[in-house]
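Quarterly update from the structural biology core.
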Amino acid sequence: MSDIEHLIEEALRPVGATPPPPSRDLFARVLDSVADDRARRRRTRRVTALWVAAVAAVTLLVIILTPQSNGELLMPWWILELGTNLVLVGIALWLGPFIKRFGRAYAADVFHDNPLTGKSYIVLTDIVYYLIFTAYICFTVNFAPTSDWQNVGTDLVTPQQLQREVVRIGGILLIIGVLHGLNIVLMPVLGRLFSLNRRVDRT
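Predicted structure, tokenized:
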């Protein structure tokens, strides 16, 4: 330790107390922490590489499937529809684990009296999350052009269709954001109720 750390330790140590012995498993814990950090970095790089590869593959597929006229791409409506659905599925697969990763600590703190209930709550919210995403995609998917797109006779992408697909993506983000905010507010209340019920059962 440095001189400053020695001074802080001596100032905080009670009078006449002996310094605590060093932890026997300190080195092992440091090694585990380093290994966990390396594994996290590898996982982050792997996920980033997968996302880059997926975006590149979708872009290449769109370019290949889209016909050209005088060097300009004429995108059929179904390519944009398919791309939007792939984006929605990608958001679901990325956002779910992201929320779960940072929600575990919050759930553990809320359900500290009954951790098994906290784990079950996280699993149930995951199921609800994916059900909402699946239902939203099924409700908003199109299997044929609509009159609102104003592409009758051409079957090409129009600004109206593009606006509608952007609204689809924004809509699911808004729904998940509102539900996630309500979950953050209601989870402490549920944790408190479960704790009170458990105390009543013990008495």
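The chain is about 75% helix and 0% strand.
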